[in-house]
Each structure stands twice: as structure tokens, then as C-alpha cells.
Amino acid sequence: MTDFITVADVDQALGQGWAGSGDPVLAVTMANAWLTAKLNRPVADPTPNSIKLAGAQVAKEAAAGNLYKATGKEVLSKTVSATTGTSVSKTFAQGSTDLTAGESFALDLIAPWVKRTGVFMLKRI
User: Fold this and answer.
1) Which residues face 81 on adjacent strands?
2) What pTM was computed for the model?
3) What band does 8 get if pLDDT is binned at 50, 70 and 90?
4) First CA to last CA across the chain, in angstroms?
5) β-pairing verdict for 87-93 and 74-81
6) Spatial contact of 11 and 42, defined as CB atoms under 8 Å apart
7) Residue-range domain boundaries for the chain
8) In the list 24, 40, 48, 102, which could disulfide-bond 19, CB 3.0-4.6 Å?
9) What are the φ and ψ backbone dihedral angles of 123, each rounded to 5 degrees?
């Protein structure tokens, strides 16, 4: 796991008391693990401000207990009926989770490091 942010970075970005009643050290550790899992490309040293801000948002969610939840919410299929008595049904994947506002914002902030650029050519030898 890479340490992208520290408690001091989150304090600077969000101000004192961002963790509420949560453990700030554990929240930052969870945020660093989350960032490590999401980022696909190398990150320059020093860590860019957008990644630090993303980590701060995720740490805030982690401190509130909103990160690494165990509820199923990923949609596998959706059915809509346009006949009389319209109905909508959804089937969710087991183990998927809702994204919080902080997670969604963080994903947008780290998007340049998540998306792969270019095409990789494989050659069989």
C-alpha cells in the first residue's frame, strides 16, 4: 500500500475535527488503501493536490463508517414495463456497495490516474 496522504494532509484540506468520533489514523489508512486499489498509473512525487484532496474526501467517509460497507447495490439487470400498470425491477449483484458522495467526488478527482491511456500491443514470441 502506498501512503498518498497523512492525517496532517487531511487536517489541512478539511480542517480540524474532520473525523468526528471516528479514528483519524484508521480513516487515513483506509483512504490510502482505497487509493492504492483505484490508481492504475504511477503517481508523481510529491503527490498531486487532486489525489490528496480525493484521499481527504475518502478519509472523511471512512471516519464516518461509510467506506468498505457490505451492502449489495450493483445492478445486474433492470426491467421496465411500459404497459398499463408500469413497473420497474432491478437485480443487484451480491457484495456491491453504494458509492457515497465523497467516494464519487474522489473518483472524479483521481480519474487521470485511473484511466489507462494508449493501447498496449502484445506480441507472442
Assistant:
1) 87
2) 0.64
3) very high
4) 33
5) antiparallel
6) no
7) 7-69+99-114
8) 24
9) -125, 125
